[in-house]
Fold this sequence. Notes:
Shape: rod-shaped
Distance between the termini: 72 Å
Strand content: under 5%
Largest sheet: none
Low-confidence stretches: none
Order of helices and strands: H
Radius of gyration: 22 Å
Amino acid sequence: MQFRSFRLRIALLSAALAGSTLIGFGVTAWLQISDANAVVLMHSWKIAYF
């Protein structure tokens, strides 16, 4: 029984690490894309109005 519990803890830790890594990359990518879109939008406004 003790081995199963240890294996379960390792599996849950591994899943939590993988999930947090995916969430971290997703948030970083979303922020970078949002920032890039804002720069493009500001640049297009500058060309259109000034």
